[in-house]
Amino acid sequence: MADEIKPETPAPKIVPQTGEATSAAVASTRAPAAGAAASAPATGANPAATPHATTTAAARPAAAPRPPAAPIPDLAGKTTNVASPGGAAAARATPATAAAAKTSTRDADDTSPLLNRRAWMGLAWGAFTAASAAALAATGRFMFPNVLNEPPQQFKAGFPNEYGMGVDERWKEKYGIWIVRTPEDIEQHASGFYSLSVTCTHLGCTPNYLSAENKFKCPCHGSGFRTTGVNFEGPAPRPLERTRIVLAEDGQILVDKSRHYQRELGQWIDPEAFLKA
Ligand code: FES
Questions:
Q1: Which of 71, 209, 221, 243 has the most CB atoms in a 10 Å sphere around its CB?
Q2: What is the pTM of this model?
């Protein structure tokens, strides 16, 4: 009977497998939908004799055995796996070895007694860096030479009527001179002004003006100078030096420290060594 309905074969149960067997199983599950002709190449069985034989485990081809795991070479060039002699022991020792390698910072051939090689290298690099920084700083220091900001050699010291008789110390600290007003100069034989250098003619200390004794006294070795600048006690060999003193265009006293006058050389009689007033 052409219209007789044949009972359907129950759906094959899919068993997860690997490799070619899994592929065959998947192909066999698709066979009813794709037709017997499509399933034939996958199973290699006769579809007419056994239409769904490929769905059974007995008809499946045996799965190809997995190839053994490739040995992994270690750093020494040896290959070790679990199957090799000592491989299992090596596998068991691996975590401990890794832990020891983590905690140890010393190389296998490092036999330094005090510090390990890495510590020595760190020390050497630190010293090299510090020396390089110091050399660089010393080189950079030459870019900023010492500059001595001296006061100007010429300055205006005010008007003559601002001075009384005697020694004026206003300019000692800033310009290094005393301005003395005298009614009678020992060289010029006139009243007026002269400026005295505050440098002792012995070894260059700065004397002090002692108003009670009306003299200059050097604190270093005791040299004494009269208010005229002439030395009279101590080791100073000659009088203090005078500097150029003139009247500026605006009527102020102009002192020029770039020109000095020495009495022992007869220079105190120079017109610009004394300002008559
Ligand atoms: S430096 Fe002034 S007395 Fe020696």
A1: 243
A2: 0.50
